[in-house]
């Protein structure tokens, strides 16, 4: 509990007493593996043999031509096993859990990507696995619920509060305070009490390390700007950390939902609706009211629909080290459709936020310059949401027929 | 002040009772009636929980009570007004229980000044360990109010001493791991743990989490100074109505 992981005013470890010893142990273990060069090597080997790393950096020629500005590169985290960057963090924590000798893992999930990644890790390492998921997200990410269960995890729908990501995190903590002797909580993003923001960012830094090398190989120079969507902030931290010491502009894109003036969004850093607060064990910008009660958030993407944000990004926001923007639900669907049609690539709804913003800015940059968009995940999981958004009549017909089959 | 009240009162009682309510649940009128019945039935001190949208350390019963209270419009202003009213009306000490964001957002010093003004004697904030509570501790000390700290069965001996160096009034000992409102085994392990707690502090000890009936309260006699009844009274209100709280408390003593 000594070096509590502050980034400016944000971060810390606002822990109930029952968890203090557990966090002390976790911090000690994390410090140990950070100093152990063989751990990172083993981690890279595992990620290459199990998750297809390094993931490619794809030049998006058709999109570049369409916008007529900077060269657009896409970092393909969608090509990780399980289809998102979440695997990077999960496998790293899994290796740590094995060393700690714990036999059970729990996790929260919003989009279901972190849940699926945790379920695969548990299957591979032989851990019991329970996933907490808000009831609203269970419905909007049903394919991932199916896969988690097939992989052997128990999925618990959370019916309290706003029934989305933050409520799933609360429930995971409630499990942990009872079962910490046997159980590790695999937090899925760069939030929560220290050491989670640092530890999750550490494992995700593999994205930025690769991307920096790949763009130098391809272009012989650094990118002008890099874009990542921001839910809790783990894929953004992963990409950004590769360029912390470079003259590269870092742009985080939050969920603009129905628009920043609608009150129905999840933009903590780029709107004026959030303020510093303490919840879920850490201090950061939260979307909250004057009494300090958390507000309901909205996003078309379950993975960005969260009231808090990484304390590291809050600090980068205040110090101007990164710029934060938003993209609305409508802009996101448009960017997703365009990317599919022009490049044959299907980004997740979360990732499409980064695409939408990059598309706005690319035309303003010169043709010599390059930008990188982090495609944090693939869109397959979003098939129901996207089908609704594009209002595909044939898909609807198929679902109705399928339902009739089950009813027969 | 709180400490001397507890020690004085203990001279005539084997164990004291502390109960808990969520302010505004099921309604403020009901909350008031619950407090009245509890005090009349002989409760010695009370925790008034200011509801929070993310009550991480609370189990399903208190969690739902927090949510319902907020849905029904329990605001911080209303909670302050309510607390002021009961503190004036009833002759026992009242404490606030809440989560760190509530006083943080209001301003730690302002919050503590407000407590002093409305005669609330101390506060239990489970997600504000001393490491993060510098401003809070300073403000509480300035107003001679008690920041209540928590011992848990997971707490190391070294940390018990560290925590008691900040504690005032009494120390709240968690009877077990987990959240509020689940079963606790009142066994020898608990007795061993409580004697460890006793060695770490000169303050009175309260024991909470899972205390539900007379047998549990009796078990704690001689091992602790205060038995804390939390979720159980909320459950009684839900199952049998507000009017049943007084009889329930009487059944414990
Ligand atoms: C594909 C994808 N991208 C992004 C996110 C947002 O998380 P983070 O901000 O931690 O990268 C999620 C979270 O569920 C996700 O599934």
Essential attributes:
A: 408 residues; alpha/beta; six-stranded mixed β-sheet; four-stranded parallel β-sheet; 47% helix; B: 253 residues; TIM Barrel; 8 strands; binds pyridoxal-5'-phosphate
Short description:
The complex is a heterodimer of chains A (408) and B (253). Chain A has 408 residues and is α/β, with parallel strands linked by helices.
Description:
- The complex is a heterodimer of chains A (408) and B (253).
- By secondary structure, chain A is of the alpha/beta class.
- Chain A has two domains: 6-47 and 85-196, Rossmann fold, CATH 3.40.50.1100; 54-83 and 206-388, Rossmann fold (3-Layer(aba) Sandwich), CATH 3.40.50.
- Helix content of chain A is 47%, strand content 18%.
- Chain A has helices at 17-35, 37-51, 61-67, 86-100, 113-125, 135-140, 142-150, 165-179, 196-219, 234-240, 311-319, 329-343, 349-361, 383-390, 393-407, and strands spanning 6-7, 10-11, 57-59, 71-76, 104-109, 128-134, 154-158, 183-185, 225-229, 249-257, 274-279, 282-287, 323-328, 370-375.
- Chain A is globular and about 55 Å long.
- Chain B has a single domain (2-250), classed as TIM Barrel, CATH 3.20.20.70.
- Chain B is built from twelve helices and eight strands.
- Chain B has helices spanning 2-10, 28-41, 60-71, 76-89, 101-106, 108-117, 134-142, 157-164, 188-200, 214-220, 231-240, 245-252; strands at 16-22, 45-49, 94-97, 122-124, 146-151, 171-174, 205-208, 226-229.
- In chain B, strands 1-2-3-4-5-6-7-8 form an eight-stranded parallel barrel, surrounded by eight helices.
- In chain B, helix 2 runs parallel beside helix 12 (245-252).
- The relative contact order of chain B is 0.17.
- The mean pLDDT of chain B is 96.
- The structure holds pyridoxal-5'-phosphate.
- Residues 84, 86, 110-111, 113-114, 189, 229-236, 303-304, 348, 350-351, 376-377 of chain A line the site of pyridoxal-5'-phosphate (PLP).
